[in-house]
Write a structure and sequence with these properties.
There is one protein chain. The protein is an all-beta fold. It has one domain: Neuraminidase (6 Propeller). It is built from 1 helix and 26 strands. The strands form 7 sheets. It has a 4-stranded antiparallel sheet, with no helix packed on it. The chain starts with a strand and ends with a strand.
């Protein structure tokens, strides 16, 4: 068999040796600005009728019915406290939205009773998607300090009613390995915030039973494989080693920046934790800051059906990956939009099969794009 060496050049050269199939053929893509005048739009979710909900980090939760429709700003939480990397962050639409009208938002809060936290609140949306009511905190106590490393992306696993929530470590060194802290974790809960019965900490002393995985730094992306539904995450590294991880229940991903908050230690420390799970992809040095994560799904993407895409902040791009059959190796195959020089926060596939992308740009220049294949 012929031996082929493929060199991928990003911020450094990496040689992959072996029999490497040609990358899948990229579809042509058209980028359209669908909303502008926004203030750091953070996340997007869609109702079954196609209504788009989106957040802006300064506090707004809004809806948009599509071309020609006005943007409706919905009521937001009185306890929201934006600052640093915190504010109004991720959101999710309930799988049963057509009957229960539940919308979930994640934000940094200054609620009384402590120094504030990061929390997920469930809201009820009115029939015209123009107002929120009945706020119900379902997960509170996710740590926050200055606002650094706040996470926080909620996503329902398709085909289930399990809500996964990514969290940051709040730049507190002991949080990622502390199984009684919600910082530096991926959580898995019901729509009411209760633990899923098969979570690793259920019935285990000193192990919060909402935790799904631990040993993370700042997870801002999560997506589920369109064929088998397994979760993958995107995680911010230090000066080196952003990661894409295949998530496995009860697994330690190896971040332990102690004593203090020592950012010179490895993102995945195999010396301390020989059983830690290696990353599917790591950026090396320097980092690029991957945030939102999504799988392309549908025949409109051609050979890119099943490709993984992340929105990148520091390197101003959408970056696309193929996965090995077991999901343990992610290989970069393409980037898009880097010449525009715009920080990209979130990427979500809409019900129309197109990608929707938020730009991490302050008012009045924040935008939401539509990326259409073909």
């Amino acid at each position: 068999m012929r031996r082929l060496v493929l060199v991928l050049v990003a911020v450094s050269a990496v040689a992959l040796v072996g029999c490497v199939p040609p990358p899948p053929q990229a579809p042509p893509m058209t980028r359209t600005v669908v909303l502008s005048g926004l203030d750091r739009p953070w996340d997007i979710a869609f109702a079954p009728d196609g209504t788009m909900f989106f957040t802006e980090r300064s506090g707004a939760v809004s809806s948009w019915g599509g071309s020609g429709a006005p943007v409706e700003m919905l009521d937001g939480p009185a306890d929201l406290q934006p600052g640093s990397e915190g504010g109004m962050l991720g959101l999710a639409v309930d799988p049963m939205f057509a009957s229960n009208h539940y919308l979930y938002t994640c934000y940094t809060s200054d609620a009384p009773g402590g120094n504030g936290d990061v929390r997920v609140v469930r809201w009820t949306v009115n029939g015209s998607s123009t107002a929120l009511s009945a706020p119900q905190p379902i997960v509170t106590g996710m740590p926050r300090s200055s606002g650094r490393h706040s996470g926080c992306r909620p996503r329902f696993q398709p085909g289930t009613e399990d809500l996964h929530i990514t969290t940051g470590d709040a730049a507190i060194g002991t949080n990622p390995q502390n199984l009684e802290s919600l910082g530096g974790k991926v959580l898995r809960v019901t729509r009411d915030g209760d633990p899923i019965a098969s979570n690793p900490g259920v019935g285990v002393a000193n192990f919060d039973d909402r935790i799904f995985t631990y040993g993370h730094r700042n997870v801002q992306g999560i997506a589920f494989h369109p064929e088998h539904g397994r979760p993958f995450s995107a995680e911010h590294g230090t000066g080196c080693d952003d990661e894409i991880n295949k998530l496995r229940r009860g697994t330690n991903y190896g971040w332990d920046p102690v004593p203090g908050y020592n950012e010179s230690v490895p993102m995945t420390d195999f010396v301390k934790f020989p059983g830690a799970r290696p990353a599917s992809w790591s950026s090396g040095c320097p980092t690029i800051a991957p945030s939102g994560l999504e799988f392309l799904s549908g025949p409109q993407w051609g050979e890119w059906n099943g490709v993984l895409v992340t929105a990148v902040l520091k390197n101003h791009q959408l970056r696309f990956f193929t996965l090995s059959p077991n999901g343990m190796v992610a290989t970069r195959i393409a980037t898009r939009y880097r010449p525009l020089g715009v920080r990209l926060r979130s990427v979500v596939q809409g019900p129309d099969g197109n990608l929707y992308v938020t730009t991490d740009v302050a008012a009045p220049n924040g935008q939401i794009w539509r990326v259409t294949p073909g």
